Amino acid sequence: MSWKKKRKIHGKNQYYSLSKKLRKESKSNDKFETMLNNLSLEEVIALKLELAAKSAGGYLYGMPIWRSLKYVVENSVLIFALSSTRTKNEAARFLGLKKREYNNINKIYNVESYFEERDS
Fold first, then answer.
1. How far apart are CA 79 and CA 26, in angstroms?
2. What residue segments make up the domains of the chain, in order of their start?
3. CA-CA distance, 67 to 28, in Å (whole number)?
4. What are the residues whose beta carbons fall under 8 Å from the beta carbon of 102, sequence distance 6 or more?
5. pLDDT at 99
6. Which of 27, 1, 19, 9 is nearest to 115 (CA)?
7. Can you tell me whether residue 80 is helix, strand or coil?
8. Please, which residues have CB within 8 angstroms of residue 78's CB and are 6 or more apart in sequence?
9. Are 58 and 65 contacting, i.e. CB atoms less than 8 angstroms apart?
10. Which ranges in 1-120 belong to alpha helices (H)?
11. pLDDT, position 114
12. How far apart are CA 27 and CA 98, in angstroms?
């Protein structure tokens, strides 16, 4: 045989999926994801800010958007890393972090709680 069966790695994050979570909460569907896929990341961020400003009366004065941007992006990338990998070690390697660095960052952002089921 020219192929080998891959070793299955099981971990907590193998069940994390942002798409499934949003669909379960009725915040997403196939049509929305297709439309979103046609936009660039810059367009998505700009549109989200425009919609937030519109709902706030047209202005977002007093909000430290520029200073908060780093944390928003890091949190988003951590959520993606957890949803696209099977284990925490794999997520750390994906992000180019050592396990200790990953654990320290995860304590700050507490990303795993994002995927936990909430009783509503």
1. 19
2. 15-115
3. 29
4. 88, 91, 92, 95
5. 94
6. 19
7. helix
8. 91, 95, 105, 106, 109, 111
9. no
10. 18-24, 30-37, 41-55, 65-84, 88-95, 99-109
11. 84
12. 34
Please answer whether residues 115 and 82 qualify as being in contact, where contact means their C-beta atoms are separated by less than 8 angstroms.
Answer: yes
**Below-50 pLDDT ranges, the chain:** 1
Q: 109 near 32, Cβ under 8 Å? A: no
Q: Are 78 and 109 in contact (CB under 8 A)?
A: yes
Q: Which two tokens stand for residue 76?
A: 């988003």
pTM of the predicted protein model: 0.73
Distances (CA, A) of 113 to 13, 38, 42, 107, 110: 12, 29, 27, 11, 6
Any idea how long the chain is?
Answer: 120
CA distance 81 to 109: 13
Closest CA to 13 of 75, 89, 71: 89
Question: Sign of the C-alpha dihedral, residues 32, 35, 38, 44?
Answer: negative
